[in-house]
Amino acid sequence: MPFDTLRNFVKGDLEAVLTLNNSAAPAVNELTSSDLKWFAEVSHLFLVSERKVEEKTQITGFLIGLTGPGVDYESINYNWFTSRYESFLYVDRVVVDESSWGQGNGRRFYEALVGSGSNQPVMCAEVNIKPRNERSLIFHEKFGFTPVGEQDTEGGSKRVQLMEYKI
User: Fold this and answer.
1) Cβ-contact 123, 165 below 8 angstroms
2) Which of 35, 42, 76, 85 is most buried per CB count within 10 Å?
3) pTM for the full model?
4) Is residue 102 classed exposed, middle or buried when 0-12, 13-18 and 19+ CB atoms within 10 A define those classes?
5) CA-to-CA distance for 46 and 112, rounded, in angstroms?
């Protein structure tokens, strides 16, 4: 099976990305169209993966990467890194559709973010440990991330492991 193609997000991707994001909850927080439009304006890198299926193009994943500090973002996790790092890349979210699992898209998204020319010394991310996202924890460990902290979010209904990858 050929690799899905990575490309920059465009306005016409909004509904497909929104559906993909919200179907991945609770691994990622749900978003609105306004949230996605905001990310498109402030992100350092907003990529989608796509494949042709019977003459139709299907969005199969996406990554939203920010730089930090400097984005006026109310995320408790982004702000955790902002308070501890002088300069970093931040994976706000990455979602890969089940139909593309195991094809390397997650790795390709992260490699694209690392290679995006930002000259940041570290890439940061968090993964749910309550509820546990085992698949993502394994992926991040294999990629080379190391845990640097944990914190409760959403009033204690979620707990995340905060991680860094030295670039």
Assistant:
1) yes
2) 85
3) 0.94
4) exposed
5) 10
